[in-house]
Amino acid sequence: MNPALLDDFSLEMTGKDVPRLEEAQGGIPPGTRINITFLAGEDTATRLTAARAVKRLGFVPVPHISARRLPSRPALEEFLTGLAADGTAENVFVVGGDPARPEGPYEDALAVLRTGLLRHHGVRHVGIAGYPEGHPGITDRALWTALTDKAAALDADRFDGDVITQFGFDADPVLAWLEDLRARGVRLPVRVGVPGPAGVRRLLGYATRFGVGTSASVARKYGFSLTNLMGTTGPDRFLHALAERYDPGRHGVVKVHFYTFGGLRATAEWIDGFRRQHAPAPASSNR
Question: So which cofactors does this thing need (predicted)?
Fold first, then answer.
């Protein structure tokens, strides 16, 4: 396998994971993009502190903005103003979010993009969400409409951007989705979501929450069993399958985004080991 697939990978953390990031710092390449989630129960100060820490440690902070969790326009302005003051506003990821009903005026990510506030506060690069296996609460048709509308909005406002996908256990739907995405005219780079090494039971819990396929055949393909939930598994087989069938002409620019589930150090160590294992052999010398 060509380890170049892991060039410029990105990671995800929560606002409370700063100590874990500090522990993992030495194993993560400087300049790595690190997304900071926008969770319920975390306040603006926690999110701003995390973004500052990511920057201080030599990485690129990518704070999330969860549209449906924003209680008001002033709350969005407060967050963006804080990021701008700290020099951490250049990159953001805008997502609709989990609440069944919006907690404020923003129904979805597109509504946040249309406020004009991102550019005003110094945002230059915007990530948006993609769902290769669908979403349990949104129809496929609505997902595609939302994604193409957001991509068009980024283009119209001259933002750089990318699409970060939900994680999955099967490369087949991801590759099919990438072809469909390109056929619909979306040319943004895609960061394919990949679970970092984690306990099988924990992975299945997240998969159930996000509607990720976990049939027995998919589980075997990924490398775990639904009848034995003990132990830990990593994305080795998934990445091999993705790399073997990835075609830049059909799939466009593709990178990898790791969902770490709090295991930043374990994920960084896994990536390093995987890259070493699959590094090209040194050229022989005839001298």
Answer: FAD
